[in-house]
Amino acid sequence: MASDDVFKKIIAHCKEYGFIFQSSEIYDGLSAVYDYGQNGAELKNNIKQYWWDAMTKLNENIVGIDSAIFMHPRTWEASGHVGAFNDPLIDNKDSKKRYRADVLIEEHMEKIEGKINKEVAKAAKRFGDSFDEKQFRETNQRVLANQEKIDSIKARFVKALEENDLDDVKQIIIDCEISCPISGSINWTDVRQFNLMFSTQLGSVSEEANTIYLRPETAQGIFVNFLNVQKTGRMKLPFGIAQIGKAFRNEIVARQFIFRMREFEQMEMQFFVRPGTEMEWYHHWKDVRMKWHKALGMGDEKYRFRDHDKLAHYANAAADIEFNMPMGFREVEGIHSRTDFDLGNHEKFSGKKIQYYDPETQESYVPYVVETSIGVDRMFLTVMSSAYTEETVEATGEQRVVLKLPPALAPVKLAVLPLTKKDGMPEKAREIMDTMKFDFNCQYEEKDSIGKRYRRQDAIGTPFCITIDHQTLEDNTVTIRHRDTMEQDRVSIDKLAGILDDLVSMKKLFQKL
Ligand code: GAP
Fold it and tell me: Would you tell me how many other CB atoms lie within 10 Å of the CB of residue 234?
Protein backbone atom coordinates (compact mmCIF):
# COMPACT_ATOMS: atom_id res chain seq x y z
CA MET A 1 0.00 0.00 0.00
CA ALA A 2 1.29 3.51 -0.82
CA SER A 3 2.45 5.36 2.29
CA ASP A 4 -0.07 8.18 1.67
CA ASP A 5 -2.88 5.62 1.71
CA VAL A 6 -1.62 4.09 4.96
CA PHE A 7 -1.49 7.52 6.56
CA LYS A 8 -5.04 8.33 5.41
CA LYS A 9 -6.26 5.00 6.78
CA ILE A 10 -4.64 5.64 10.16
CA ILE A 11 -6.29 9.07 10.36
CA ALA A 12 -9.70 7.61 9.45
CA HIS A 13 -9.23 4.77 11.93
CA CYS A 14 -8.34 7.21 14.72
CA LYS A 15 -11.62 9.00 14.12
CA GLU A 16 -13.82 5.95 13.65
CA TYR A 17 -12.66 4.29 16.85
CA GLY A 18 -12.62 7.28 19.19
CA PHE A 19 -8.90 7.99 19.30
CA ILE A 20 -8.65 11.46 17.72
CA PHE A 21 -11.18 14.00 16.48
CA GLN A 22 -10.64 17.27 14.67
CA SER A 23 -11.08 20.07 17.22
CA SER A 24 -14.43 21.94 17.00
CA GLU A 25 -15.50 19.66 14.18
CA ILE A 26 -19.11 20.86 14.21
CA TYR A 27 -17.77 24.30 13.22
CA ASP A 28 -15.70 22.73 10.41
CA GLY A 29 -12.67 22.28 12.64
CA LEU A 30 -9.70 24.37 13.69
CA SER A 31 -6.56 23.86 11.68
CA ALA A 32 -3.85 21.73 13.34
CA VAL A 33 -5.73 21.39 16.62
CA TYR A 34 -7.07 17.99 17.67
CA ASP A 35 -9.07 16.42 20.50
CA TYR A 36 -8.39 12.98 21.92
CA GLY A 37 -11.44 10.73 22.23
CA GLN A 38 -12.22 8.01 24.76
CA ASN A 39 -9.60 5.56 23.50
CA GLY A 40 -7.09 8.21 22.50
CA ALA A 41 -7.11 9.75 25.97
CA GLU A 42 -6.37 6.37 27.55
CA LEU A 43 -3.55 5.59 25.12
CA LYS A 44 -2.10 9.06 25.59
CA ASN A 45 -2.24 8.75 29.38
CA ASN A 46 -0.43 5.41 29.17
CA ILE A 47 2.32 6.94 27.01
CA LYS A 48 2.69 9.73 29.56
CA GLN A 49 2.78 7.28 32.44
CA TYR A 50 5.45 5.20 30.69
CA TRP A 51 7.60 8.31 30.30
CA TRP A 52 6.90 9.85 33.73
CA ASP A 53 7.60 6.68 35.68
CA ALA A 54 10.68 5.86 33.59
CA MET A 55 12.04 9.30 34.50
CA THR A 56 10.93 9.84 38.07
CA LYS A 57 10.56 6.32 39.50
CA LEU A 58 13.56 4.69 37.87
CA ASN A 59 15.96 7.55 38.55
CA GLU A 60 16.46 8.58 42.16
CA ASN A 61 17.93 11.88 41.00
CA ILE A 62 15.01 12.98 38.78
CA VAL A 63 11.92 14.68 40.18
CA GLY A 64 8.82 15.94 38.39
CA ILE A 65 7.04 19.30 38.49
CA ASP A 66 4.00 20.90 36.90
CA SER A 67 4.57 24.57 36.10
CA ALA A 68 2.12 27.11 34.67
CA ILE A 69 1.60 27.69 30.95
CA PHE A 70 1.67 31.46 31.40
CA MET A 71 5.02 32.85 32.47
CA HIS A 72 6.45 36.31 33.01
CA PRO A 73 7.10 37.79 29.54
CA ARG A 74 10.76 38.41 30.39
CA THR A 75 11.17 34.62 30.46
CA TRP A 76 10.88 34.51 26.69
CA GLU A 77 13.32 37.36 26.18
CA ALA A 78 15.84 35.53 28.36
CA SER A 79 15.28 32.21 26.60
CA GLY A 80 15.83 33.81 23.19
CA HIS A 81 12.36 32.94 21.92
CA VAL A 82 11.27 36.56 21.37
CA GLY A 83 14.29 37.22 19.17
CA ALA A 84 15.03 33.88 17.58
CA PHE A 85 12.10 31.47 17.67
CA ASN A 86 11.38 31.92 14.00
CA ASP A 87 10.67 29.84 10.95
CA PRO A 88 11.58 31.10 7.46
CA LEU A 89 8.38 31.32 5.45
CA ILE A 90 7.79 31.76 1.73
CA ASP A 91 4.58 32.23 -0.28
CA ASN A 92 3.80 31.02 -3.76
CA LYS A 93 2.33 34.00 -5.63
CA ASP A 94 0.14 31.86 -7.86
CA SER A 95 -1.44 29.46 -5.38
CA LYS A 96 -1.19 31.97 -2.48
CA LYS A 97 -0.06 29.03 -0.34
CA ARG A 98 2.47 29.53 2.44
CA TYR A 99 5.35 27.14 3.09
CA ARG A 100 8.32 26.78 5.39
CA ALA A 101 11.31 27.45 3.16
CA ASP A 102 13.49 25.01 5.14
CA VAL A 103 10.87 22.26 4.78
CA LEU A 104 10.67 22.78 0.98
CA ILE A 105 14.43 22.37 0.71
CA GLU A 106 14.54 19.38 3.07
CA GLU A 107 11.78 17.64 1.13
CA HIS A 108 13.66 18.28 -2.10
CA MET A 109 16.75 16.60 -0.61
CA GLU A 110 14.59 13.71 0.59
CA LYS A 111 13.36 13.20 -2.99
CA ILE A 112 16.95 12.89 -4.23
CA GLU A 113 17.67 10.51 -1.32
CA GLY A 114 14.64 8.50 -2.49
CA LYS A 115 16.22 8.14 -5.96
CA ILE A 116 19.42 6.83 -4.36
CA ASN A 117 17.47 4.34 -2.25
CA LYS A 118 15.59 3.10 -5.34
CA GLU A 119 18.88 2.61 -7.17
CA VAL A 120 20.27 0.65 -4.19
CA ALA A 121 17.13 -1.50 -3.88
CA LYS A 122 17.24 -2.31 -7.63
CA ALA A 123 20.88 -3.35 -7.40
CA ALA A 124 20.26 -5.41 -4.26
CA LYS A 125 17.59 -7.33 -6.14
CA ARG A 126 19.83 -7.82 -9.17
CA PHE A 127 22.91 -9.03 -7.26
CA GLY A 128 21.14 -10.99 -4.52
CA ASP A 129 23.30 -12.30 -1.69
CA SER A 130 26.55 -11.10 -3.22
CA PHE A 131 25.39 -7.44 -3.04
CA ASP A 132 27.76 -5.13 -1.17
CA GLU A 133 25.72 -1.99 -0.45
CA LYS A 134 28.64 0.05 0.88
CA GLN A 135 30.74 -0.60 -2.20
CA PHE A 136 27.77 0.11 -4.48
CA ARG A 137 27.11 3.45 -2.81
CA GLU A 138 30.79 4.37 -3.11
CA THR A 139 31.17 3.48 -6.78
CA ASN A 140 27.88 3.76 -8.67
CA GLN A 141 28.01 6.93 -10.76
CA ARG A 142 24.31 7.82 -10.50
CA VAL A 143 24.33 7.35 -6.72
CA LEU A 144 27.50 9.42 -6.40
CA ALA A 145 26.10 12.23 -8.53
CA ASN A 146 22.89 12.37 -6.49
CA GLN A 147 24.79 12.22 -3.19
CA GLU A 148 26.94 15.12 -4.36
CA LYS A 149 23.81 17.09 -5.16
CA ILE A 150 22.43 16.49 -1.63
CA ASP A 151 25.74 17.39 0.02
CA SER A 152 26.12 20.64 -1.86
CA ILE A 153 22.50 21.76 -1.26
CA LYS A 154 22.86 20.88 2.42
CA ALA A 155 26.14 22.78 2.86
CA ARG A 156 24.74 25.88 1.16
CA PHE A 157 21.46 25.68 3.08
CA VAL A 158 23.12 25.30 6.50
CA LYS A 159 25.41 28.25 5.75
CA ALA A 160 22.45 30.39 4.63
CA LEU A 161 20.52 29.59 7.82
CA GLU A 162 23.51 30.17 10.07
CA GLU A 163 24.16 33.55 8.46
CA ASN A 164 20.44 34.33 8.38
CA ASP A 165 20.87 34.91 4.65
CA LEU A 166 17.22 34.66 3.62
CA ASP A 167 17.95 35.83 0.05
CA ASP A 168 20.14 32.79 -0.47
CA VAL A 169 17.50 30.50 1.05
CA LYS A 170 15.13 31.77 -1.66
CA GLN A 171 17.86 31.41 -4.30
CA ILE A 172 18.39 27.75 -3.30
CA ILE A 173 14.67 27.12 -3.86
CA ILE A 174 14.89 28.74 -7.28
CA ASP A 175 18.18 27.04 -8.24
CA CYS A 176 16.79 23.63 -7.25
CA GLU A 177 13.66 24.42 -9.29
CA ILE A 178 11.44 23.60 -6.32
CA SER A 179 7.89 24.28 -7.41
CA CYS A 180 4.68 24.79 -5.41
CA PRO A 181 2.86 21.44 -5.09
CA ILE A 182 -0.45 23.25 -5.72
CA SER A 183 0.25 25.65 -8.61
CA GLY A 184 3.34 23.88 -9.95
CA SER A 185 5.00 27.29 -10.42
CA ILE A 186 8.27 28.68 -9.05
CA ASN A 187 6.82 32.14 -8.65
CA TRP A 188 7.96 32.69 -5.04
CA THR A 189 7.92 35.71 -2.71
CA ASP A 190 10.99 36.61 -0.66
CA VAL A 191 11.67 34.52 2.43
CA ARG A 192 10.67 36.18 5.74
CA GLN A 193 11.14 35.20 9.36
CA PHE A 194 7.96 34.46 11.31
CA ASN A 195 7.86 34.22 15.13
CA LEU A 196 6.02 31.11 16.26
CA MET A 197 4.83 32.25 19.69
CA PHE A 198 1.16 32.94 20.37
CA SER A 199 0.59 36.04 22.45
CA THR A 200 -2.34 37.18 24.53
CA GLN A 201 -3.16 39.91 27.04
CA LEU A 202 -2.99 39.54 30.78
CA GLY A 203 -5.71 41.55 32.56
CA SER A 204 -8.25 43.79 30.89
CA VAL A 205 -6.07 46.52 29.38
CA SER A 206 -4.35 45.70 26.12
CA GLU A 207 -1.11 47.53 26.70
CA GLU A 208 2.26 46.43 25.48
CA ALA A 209 3.39 45.67 29.04
CA ASN A 210 0.61 43.14 29.52
CA THR A 211 1.42 40.99 26.53
CA ILE A 212 2.21 37.45 27.59
CA TYR A 213 2.92 34.32 25.58
CA LEU A 214 1.57 30.81 25.57
CA ARG A 215 4.70 28.79 26.28
CA PRO A 216 6.27 27.30 23.14
CA GLU A 217 8.16 24.73 25.24
CA THR A 218 7.72 23.43 28.78
CA ALA A 219 11.46 23.63 29.49
CA GLN A 220 11.44 27.25 30.69
CA GLY A 221 9.06 26.36 33.54
CA ILE A 222 11.79 23.99 34.72
CA PHE A 223 14.62 26.51 34.38
CA VAL A 224 12.87 29.24 36.36
CA ASN A 225 12.18 26.70 39.12
CA PHE A 226 15.71 25.30 39.20
CA LEU A 227 16.62 26.83 42.57
CA ASN A 228 13.19 26.14 44.12
CA VAL A 229 13.49 22.44 43.36
CA GLN A 230 17.20 22.17 44.12
CA LYS A 231 16.84 23.82 47.52
CA THR A 232 13.53 22.30 48.67
CA GLY A 233 14.50 18.84 47.40
CA ARG A 234 18.10 19.16 48.65
CA MET A 235 19.14 17.94 45.22
CA LYS A 236 22.79 17.37 44.40
CA LEU A 237 24.24 17.65 40.89
CA PRO A 238 23.81 15.79 38.60
CA PHE A 239 20.02 15.78 38.88
CA GLY A 240 17.03 16.19 36.63
CA ILE A 241 13.64 17.88 36.63
CA ALA A 242 10.91 16.39 34.46
CA GLN A 243 7.65 17.88 33.30
CA ILE A 244 4.71 17.00 31.05
CA GLY A 245 2.54 19.79 29.72
CA LYS A 246 0.99 21.69 26.86
CA ALA A 247 3.01 23.86 24.51
CA PHE A 248 1.81 26.14 21.72
CA ARG A 249 3.35 27.16 18.41
CA ASN A 250 1.81 29.10 15.57
CA GLU A 251 3.20 26.68 12.98
CA ILE A 252 3.23 28.04 9.44
CA VAL A 253 2.82 24.67 7.84
CA ALA A 254 0.65 22.76 10.22
CA ARG A 255 -0.15 19.47 8.55
CA GLN A 256 0.36 15.75 8.66
CA PHE A 257 -2.31 15.25 11.28
CA ILE A 258 -0.92 15.26 14.83
CA PHE A 259 2.69 15.43 13.62
CA ARG A 260 2.76 19.23 13.55
CA MET A 261 0.12 20.84 15.71
CA ARG A 262 -0.46 24.33 17.02
CA GLU A 263 -1.39 23.06 20.49
CA PHE A 264 0.49 19.97 21.58
CA GLU A 265 2.00 18.30 24.61
CA GLN A 266 5.63 17.83 25.53
CA MET A 267 7.47 15.57 27.98
CA GLU A 268 10.71 17.29 28.83
CA MET A 269 13.50 16.58 31.25
CA GLN A 270 16.32 18.97 32.03
CA PHE A 271 19.36 17.27 33.49
CA PHE A 272 21.66 19.66 35.37
CA VAL A 273 25.34 18.78 35.33
CA ARG A 274 28.75 20.13 36.22
CA PRO A 275 30.23 22.22 33.35
CA GLY A 276 32.64 20.15 31.29
CA THR A 277 30.72 16.90 31.84
CA GLU A 278 27.84 17.76 29.51
CA MET A 279 29.06 15.72 26.52
CA GLU A 280 29.32 12.59 28.62
CA TRP A 281 25.72 13.11 29.83
CA TYR A 282 24.53 14.02 26.35
CA HIS A 283 25.71 10.61 25.07
CA HIS A 284 24.30 8.91 28.16
CA TRP A 285 20.83 10.38 27.60
CA LYS A 286 20.89 9.60 23.87
CA ASP A 287 21.41 5.93 24.78
CA VAL A 288 18.85 5.90 27.58
CA ARG A 289 16.17 7.52 25.49
CA MET A 290 16.72 5.20 22.52
CA LYS A 291 16.39 2.23 24.88
CA TRP A 292 13.10 3.63 26.20
CA HIS A 293 11.70 3.71 22.66
CA LYS A 294 13.01 0.29 21.67
CA ALA A 295 11.69 -1.41 24.83
CA LEU A 296 8.19 -0.98 23.38
CA GLY A 297 9.06 -3.65 20.83
CA MET A 298 7.87 -1.75 17.76
CA GLY A 299 10.95 -2.75 15.74
CA ASP A 300 14.52 -1.56 16.33
CA GLU A 301 15.03 -0.96 12.61
CA LYS A 302 12.35 1.75 12.66
CA TYR A 303 14.53 4.12 14.71
CA ARG A 304 17.58 6.16 13.89
CA PHE A 305 19.51 9.13 15.26
CA ARG A 306 19.90 12.27 13.21
CA ASP A 307 22.43 14.89 14.24
CA HIS A 308 21.25 18.47 13.78
CA ASP A 309 22.83 20.34 10.86
CA LYS A 310 21.96 23.69 12.35
CA LEU A 311 22.01 23.98 16.13
CA ALA A 312 19.27 25.88 17.97
CA HIS A 313 20.31 29.16 19.56
CA TYR A 314 20.85 27.44 22.94
CA ALA A 315 22.63 24.19 21.99
CA ASN A 316 26.24 22.99 21.56
CA ALA A 317 25.18 19.49 20.45
CA ALA A 318 21.82 18.08 19.40
CA ALA A 319 20.35 14.96 17.86
CA ASP A 320 16.88 13.72 17.06
CA ILE A 321 15.47 10.26 17.51
CA GLU A 322 13.57 9.59 14.30
CA PHE A 323 10.93 6.95 13.67
CA ASN A 324 9.94 5.50 10.33
CA MET A 325 6.36 6.77 10.03
CA PRO A 326 4.18 6.29 6.92
CA MET A 327 5.65 9.52 5.49
CA GLY A 328 9.26 8.41 6.14
CA PHE A 329 11.74 8.91 9.00
CA ARG A 330 10.56 11.80 11.17
CA GLU A 331 11.64 13.40 14.46
CA VAL A 332 9.93 12.13 17.59
CA GLU A 333 12.33 13.32 20.24
CA GLY A 334 15.24 15.73 20.59
CA ILE A 335 18.25 15.40 22.89
CA HIS A 336 20.01 18.72 23.32
CA SER A 337 23.06 19.87 25.18
CA ARG A 338 21.84 23.36 26.13
CA THR A 339 25.02 24.54 27.91
CA ASP A 340 24.39 27.19 30.61
CA PHE A 341 22.49 29.32 28.10
CA ASP A 342 19.09 29.25 29.81
CA LEU A 343 20.08 29.46 33.47
CA GLY A 344 22.78 32.02 32.62
CA ASN A 345 20.31 34.22 30.76
CA HIS A 346 17.64 33.94 33.46
CA GLU A 347 20.29 35.08 35.92
CA LYS A 348 21.05 38.05 33.70
CA PHE A 349 17.44 39.00 32.92
CA SER A 350 16.03 38.48 36.44
CA GLY A 351 19.00 39.94 38.31
CA LYS A 352 18.80 36.94 40.70
CA LYS A 353 21.74 34.66 41.32
CA ILE A 354 21.02 31.20 39.89
CA GLN A 355 24.02 29.16 40.93
CA TYR A 356 24.78 25.83 42.50
CA TYR A 357 27.29 25.43 45.30
CA ASP A 358 29.23 22.26 44.59
CA PRO A 359 30.37 20.75 47.91
CA GLU A 360 32.94 18.60 46.10
CA THR A 361 34.75 21.35 44.21
CA GLN A 362 33.73 24.02 46.77
CA GLU A 363 32.77 26.33 43.94
CA SER A 364 29.55 28.02 42.87
CA TYR A 365 28.62 27.89 39.22
CA VAL A 366 25.75 27.96 36.74
CA PRO A 367 25.09 24.29 35.88
CA TYR A 368 25.08 23.01 32.30
CA VAL A 369 21.98 21.27 31.00
CA VAL A 370 21.25 18.23 28.88
CA GLU A 371 17.64 18.10 27.78
CA THR A 372 15.47 15.27 26.51
CA SER A 373 12.32 16.55 24.82
CA ILE A 374 9.63 14.40 23.28
CA GLY A 375 6.20 15.31 21.90
CA VAL A 376 3.39 13.21 23.39
CA ASP A 377 1.37 13.56 20.19
CA ARG A 378 4.28 12.53 17.97
CA MET A 379 4.87 9.56 20.22
CA PHE A 380 1.17 8.75 19.82
CA LEU A 381 1.55 8.90 16.03
CA THR A 382 4.63 6.68 16.24
CA VAL A 383 2.73 4.07 18.23
CA MET A 384 -0.31 4.24 15.92
CA SER A 385 1.80 4.00 12.76
CA SER A 386 3.55 0.94 14.05
CA ALA A 387 0.39 -0.70 15.40
CA TYR A 388 -2.03 -0.27 12.48
CA THR A 389 -2.21 -3.60 10.65
CA GLU A 390 -4.49 -4.96 7.97
CA GLU A 391 -4.36 -8.71 7.59
CA THR A 392 -6.20 -11.70 6.24
CA VAL A 393 -7.36 -14.26 8.78
CA GLU A 394 -5.96 -17.54 7.50
CA ALA A 395 -8.76 -19.77 8.78
CA THR A 396 -11.64 -17.77 7.29
CA GLY A 397 -10.04 -15.64 4.57
CA GLU A 398 -11.65 -12.63 6.22
CA GLN A 399 -9.89 -9.22 6.44
CA ARG A 400 -9.26 -7.74 9.85
CA VAL A 401 -7.86 -4.42 11.02
CA VAL A 402 -5.95 -4.82 14.23
CA LEU A 403 -3.99 -2.34 16.30
CA LYS A 404 -0.95 -4.27 17.51
CA LEU A 405 -0.28 -1.80 20.30
CA PRO A 406 2.33 -2.56 22.94
CA PRO A 407 -0.01 -4.20 25.52
CA ALA A 408 1.09 -1.87 28.31
CA LEU A 409 -0.07 1.14 26.26
CA ALA A 410 -3.38 -0.29 25.02
CA PRO A 411 -6.42 1.77 26.10
CA VAL A 412 -8.38 -1.31 27.14
CA LYS A 413 -6.51 -4.31 28.52
CA LEU A 414 -9.34 -6.79 28.79
CA ALA A 415 -12.70 -7.20 27.08
CA VAL A 416 -15.21 -9.26 29.07
CA LEU A 417 -17.68 -10.93 26.71
CA PRO A 418 -20.59 -13.15 27.79
CA LEU A 419 -21.32 -15.58 24.98
CA THR A 420 -25.04 -14.84 25.17
CA LYS A 421 -27.23 -12.42 27.08
CA LYS A 422 -28.93 -15.18 29.07
CA ASP A 423 -28.44 -18.21 31.36
CA GLY A 424 -26.59 -16.17 33.98
CA MET A 425 -23.63 -15.40 31.68
CA PRO A 426 -23.94 -11.59 31.89
CA GLU A 427 -24.09 -11.81 35.69
CA LYS A 428 -20.97 -13.98 35.78
CA ALA A 429 -19.21 -11.62 33.37
CA ARG A 430 -20.10 -8.64 35.59
CA GLU A 431 -18.69 -10.49 38.57
CA ILE A 432 -15.37 -10.92 36.76
CA MET A 433 -15.39 -7.26 35.68
CA ASP A 434 -15.93 -6.22 39.27
CA THR A 435 -12.78 -7.99 40.43
CA MET A 436 -10.55 -7.12 37.46
CA LYS A 437 -11.48 -3.43 37.11
CA PHE A 438 -9.38 -2.36 40.09
CA ASP A 439 -6.18 -3.38 38.31
CA PHE A 440 -6.97 -3.20 34.60
CA ASN A 441 -8.97 -1.06 32.26
CA CYS A 442 -11.74 -3.51 31.24
CA GLN A 443 -14.63 -3.23 28.81
CA TYR A 444 -17.87 -5.19 29.04
CA GLU A 445 -19.61 -6.02 25.75
CA GLU A 446 -22.64 -8.22 25.16
CA LYS A 447 -24.08 -6.91 21.88
CA ASP A 448 -23.54 -8.72 18.54
CA SER A 449 -21.86 -12.01 17.73
CA ILE A 450 -18.59 -12.93 19.42
CA GLY A 451 -16.81 -12.55 16.04
CA LYS A 452 -18.02 -8.97 15.64
CA ARG A 453 -17.07 -8.15 19.22
CA TYR A 454 -13.56 -9.55 18.68
CA ARG A 455 -13.17 -7.33 15.59
CA ARG A 456 -14.20 -4.24 17.52
CA GLN A 457 -11.67 -5.02 20.24
CA ASP A 458 -8.97 -5.74 17.62
CA ALA A 459 -9.64 -2.33 16.13
CA ILE A 460 -8.90 -0.56 19.42
CA GLY A 461 -5.95 -2.82 20.22
CA THR A 462 -7.31 -4.71 23.25
CA PRO A 463 -4.68 -7.38 23.95
CA PHE A 464 -7.08 -9.87 25.60
CA CYS A 465 -10.73 -10.86 25.31
CA ILE A 466 -12.31 -13.38 27.62
CA THR A 467 -15.50 -15.23 26.82
CA ILE A 468 -17.91 -16.41 29.49
CA ASP A 469 -19.82 -19.48 28.27
CA HIS A 470 -21.78 -22.43 29.66
CA GLN A 471 -18.64 -24.14 30.85
CA THR A 472 -17.71 -21.03 32.85
CA LEU A 473 -20.84 -21.49 34.94
CA GLU A 474 -19.84 -25.06 35.66
CA ASP A 475 -16.09 -24.90 36.30
CA ASN A 476 -15.13 -21.23 36.67
CA THR A 477 -12.96 -21.18 33.55
CA VAL A 478 -13.07 -18.76 30.61
CA THR A 479 -11.54 -18.72 27.15
CA ILE A 480 -8.88 -16.06 26.76
CA ARG A 481 -8.16 -14.86 23.24
CA HIS A 482 -4.86 -13.27 22.31
CA ARG A 483 -5.17 -10.27 19.98
CA ASP A 484 -2.14 -10.81 17.73
CA THR A 485 -2.23 -14.58 17.28
CA MET A 486 -6.00 -14.95 17.77
CA GLU A 487 -5.17 -18.11 19.73
CA GLN A 488 -7.54 -19.10 22.50
CA ASP A 489 -6.78 -20.90 25.77
CA ARG A 490 -9.05 -22.04 28.52
CA VAL A 491 -7.99 -20.67 31.90
CA SER A 492 -9.28 -20.61 35.41
CA ILE A 493 -10.80 -17.26 36.46
CA ASP A 494 -8.60 -17.01 39.54
CA LYS A 495 -5.49 -17.15 37.29
CA LEU A 496 -6.67 -14.30 35.04
CA ALA A 497 -5.22 -11.40 37.00
CA GLY A 498 -1.79 -13.06 37.11
CA ILE A 499 -1.78 -13.84 33.37
CA LEU A 500 -2.81 -10.32 32.49
CA ASP A 501 -0.44 -8.63 34.86
CA ASP A 502 2.44 -10.54 33.35
CA LEU A 503 1.61 -9.35 29.85
CA VAL A 504 0.24 -5.84 30.18
CA SER A 505 2.04 -4.31 33.13
CA MET A 506 4.53 -1.50 32.57
CA LYS A 507 6.86 -3.23 34.99
CA LYS A 508 7.98 -5.54 32.18
CA LEU A 509 8.93 -2.52 30.07
CA PHE A 510 10.75 -0.86 32.95
CA GLN A 511 12.77 -4.01 33.57
CA LYS A 512 14.15 -3.73 30.02
CA LEU A 513 15.49 -0.20 30.61
N1 GAP B 1 12.64 22.25 24.61
C2 GAP B 1 13.16 21.87 23.37
C3 GAP B 1 12.16 21.78 22.32
O4 GAP B 1 11.02 22.20 22.48
P5 GAP B 1 11.79 20.97 19.86
O6 GAP B 1 12.67 20.10 19.01
O7 GAP B 1 11.33 22.26 19.29
O8 GAP B 1 12.63 21.20 21.19
C9 GAP B 1 10.70 18.95 21.06
O10 GAP B 1 10.53 20.13 20.34
C11 GAP B 1 9.68 17.91 20.63
O12 GAP B 1 8.37 18.45 20.71
C13 GAP B 1 9.82 17.45 19.19
O14 GAP B 1 10.77 16.41 19.06
C15 GAP B 1 8.42 16.98 18.87
O16 GAP B 1 8.23 15.65 19.31
C17 GAP B 1 7.55 17.90 19.70
N18 GAP B 1 7.00 18.99 18.86
C19 GAP B 1 7.60 20.15 18.52
N20 GAP B 1 6.79 20.90 17.77
C21 GAP B 1 5.64 20.21 17.64
C22 GAP B 1 4.40 20.46 16.96
N23 GAP B 1 4.17 21.60 16.32
N24 GAP B 1 3.43 19.52 17.02
C25 GAP B 1 3.63 18.35 17.70
N26 GAP B 1 4.78 18.08 18.35
C27 GAP B 1 5.77 18.98 18.33
Answer: 7
